[in-house]
Write a structure and sequence with these properties.
Elements lengths: L1 H46 L8 H5 L6 H22 L15 H36 L11 H31 L11
Helix pairs in contact: 1-3, 1-5, 3-5, 4-5
């Protein structure tokens, strides 16, 4: 049964990472345009003293209003969107100072414990994030510049948090199966 879940779980994690990547690119482009607009406006003000009419279009430019609010909400979404693929691919750091001295069976047991701890962290953070989302939803807090409800950003990040919990639970099953069958799981983590 766990083998049957492998492809759907991978597809779910990659979908989350893809959406997170699209949002990351959008945030990067928005920040670039905002900084360029602000710089052009400052340049226009600096040159206004010498060149009156030629510089007027530069003065019309400026930073994107509310850019910092959108970056803040976007980054929370992006972080949670990438956590499932990192967890699925075992991309977290591994401290292999002692584990190299242990046998493969004991290392598989460590994998089960580590995946269980990752699931516990995912559930805890996901639940706390859910509570935060509900708090922002219930109190009606809005952003300072764009006046959008703060819970929108929280709710968007909850998308990745839920997928992270699902993937982390699958990883516990997968490492448990590896422990019982004697298979070793591949790792893409940074070994320290």
């Amino acid at each position: 049964m766990i083998k049957l879940l492998e492809r759907p779980m991978a597809a779910l994690a990659w979908f989350s990472a893809f959406v997170g990547g699209v949002v990351l690119i959008a945030v990067m482009l928005m920040t670039t345009v905002s900084v360029a607009g602000m710089s052009a406006s400052k340049l226009g003000k600096l040159l206004k003293k010498s060149y009156d009419t030629v510089i007027d279009p530069l003065l019309a430019l400026g930073p994107i209003s509310g850019e910092t609010e959108m970056v803040e909400a976007g980054m929370a979404f992006i972080i949670f969107a990438f956590l499932p693929i990192v967890t699925l691919n075992r991309g977290h750091a591994e401290v292999a100072i002692l584990t190299g001295f242990f046998g493969k069976g004991f290392n598989r047991l460590i994998d089960v414990v580590a995946d269980g701890l990752m699931l516990a962290v995912a559930v805890l953070l996901g639940y706390q994030h859910y509570l935060g989302t509900m708090d922002k939803f219930n109190n009606g807090e809005i952003s300072w510049i764009l006046y959008y409800p703060i819970w929108w950003g929280y709710g968007a990040a909850l998308f990745g948090a839920v997928i992270w919990v699902i993937i982390a639970a699958y990883c516990v099953l997968r490492s448990g199966r590896a422990l019982l069958t004697g298979q070793s799981l591949p790792s893409s983590g940074a070994v320290h």
